[in-house]
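Why Phosphoserine aminotransferase? Reviewers of the renewal asked for a concrete example.
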Amino acid sequence: MKRHYNFSAGPATLPTEVMQQAADEMLDWHGSGMSVMEMSHRGKEFMSIYHDALQDLRDLMNIPSNYKILFMQGGAIAENAIIPMNLVGMKPQPATADYIHTGHWSGRSILDARKYCKVNIAATAETSHYTHVPARDTWKLSTDAAYVHICTNETIGGVEYHFTPDVGDVPLVADMSSQILSREVDVSRFGVIYGGAQKNIGPAGVTIVVVREDLLGHALPICPSAFDWKVVAENDSMFNTPPTYSIYIAGLVFKWLKRQGGVPAIEKVNIAKAALLYDYLDSTEFYRNPVAKDCRSRMNVPFSLHKESLNELFLDGAKERGLVQLKGHSSVGGMRASIYNAMPIEGVRALVDYMRDFEKQHG
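Here is what the prediction returned.
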């Protein structure tokens, strides 16, 4: 069987060898006579999987010892509410939180946060139609914010932070759903890092939360116990049944990433993949990428054809070549190539070759 090059934004492509290992272990994990899907989340078999995944993620991200790693559920969208419910209690009520609005997903975060606190939009990229990250010196931060929230990579718009903003002593909270493990990050500069796993980590179902310990224990009274970070941390993410199979696959991906040389090595590959695609886009007027060059995402590359009428023909031809899931998000149209860690550079080369051939035929 020949696997396609899958450019989906999420759930996204996974490393082939991880999928093969999971297939080999499906019915009998390490002689246990059980599938991971069937194991008790508190049994010794799954706990060994869980602790390995926990330590491997801590190693890969160089997470300091004063940070907790939580495996939660609900995706980044649930965390949009869970974050203010856990953090605004640090301040007298009604509390304020600062948000930087760079596109669709930060916008979704703002909408949910407004249910639990006053939101100050400290900076917005609205004037550029969300095609850039506002420069740090333009941000108008509150004097008493409970936290500052950013989305480090806008999956739909293809905008990425290539810097970590200095926000002083206020906790910096980052949705890293589509950027996590793709580049080196100094975790100590963040109060909270979170993200859905279904892009660079594994299948949908598990949400990663990395939270500094001093930020635990401030949940609002209305916060459900299963969403209270302190409760989840005290129970090693086992307060309720976690998404065990998703954690298992995530653990396999962590080990795969270690075999590639870790985050520094995969970042070099990601830089090369992104450069290959952007260099071609910049060389032609047949395709267009709208994002400011200094804010372009390495993970998600949106582009449009010079004639919208060619879109379906482009997608049909791509599928014939084994290049799938290239249709852009419905809110923006066009195309989008998501080139996460598991996308090999050969896949990006195949895409560029096809784009070049298509341009010759229809330009």
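The chain has a mean pLDDT of 97. This is the kind of structural detail the renewal will allow us to pursue systematically.
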